[in-house]
Amino acid sequence: MNKPILKSGPVTTGAADFFARSRARLGFDVPPGLFDPNIIPASGDPGTDKMLEIIAREQPVRPAAVLIAVVDRPEPTILLTQRSAHLNDHAGQIAFPGGKIDATDSSPLDAALREAEEEVGLSRDFVEPIGYLDLYGTGFGFRILPTVAKVRPGFALTINHSEVDDAFEVPLSFLMNPANHQLHSKEFRGMERFYYAMPFVERYIWGATAGMLRVLYERIYSS
């Protein structure tokens, strides 16, 4: 299946409006499902929900955190990375800065900021955290808690090529336009499940990254 989702029209994505909506809708309460395998993150897709139930029974939960870094430019953007081709998990895919939550991290927020510094050299001095998005589960057992943050322009990135090959920005207006949210399907153990893709120029944004961007759109603009 290959089609765009057109549940709503394009939204106004000015920086001030986006950050105001985000502050009103997000907070820093950590959902218990981040660590509890018995709490399955809801995806809104029955096939995916069933897959996550099966994965939770078969694999240990892998708590992770990512940073949805919204750069406060005249036309706001979101910072994304392309993972290194040699990695074992999700090699070459488009992702947010982030990774697993370590025991030394004081919070999922701290993990997201640490990973952003390690992967692309984004200094915490430029980052203003706003709140957590909904918990997102994947077929690899990851429970991902995204931190939405406002990023002040003027930062300089240093790419850690052992983890990522590139970092780039995509206009928020493109990512928050539901006309760009393609819905695809694939089979998991005889069940059909759906996932999103948001191709942008030569960048193929799909899977968990596109799924979290769709959740961001629904949480900030759909209500």
UniProtKB/TrEMBL annotation:
Record domain Nudix hydrolase: where: 61-196
Q: Which SUPFAM superfamilies match?
A: Nudix
InterPro entries hit by this protein: CoAse (IPR045121), NUDIX_hydrolase-like_dom_sf (IPR015797), NUDIX_hydrolase_dom (IPR000086)
According to UniProt, the name of this protein is: NUDIX domain-containing protein
Keyword Manganese annotated: yes
Range of residues in the leader sequence:
none
Q: Which domain of life is it from?
A: Bacteria
Q: Which cofactor is recorded for it?
A: Mn(2+); Mg(2+)
Q: What GO terms are given for molecular function? A: coenzyme A diphosphatase activity; metal ion binding
Key words of the record: Hydrolase, Magnesium, Manganese, Metal-binding
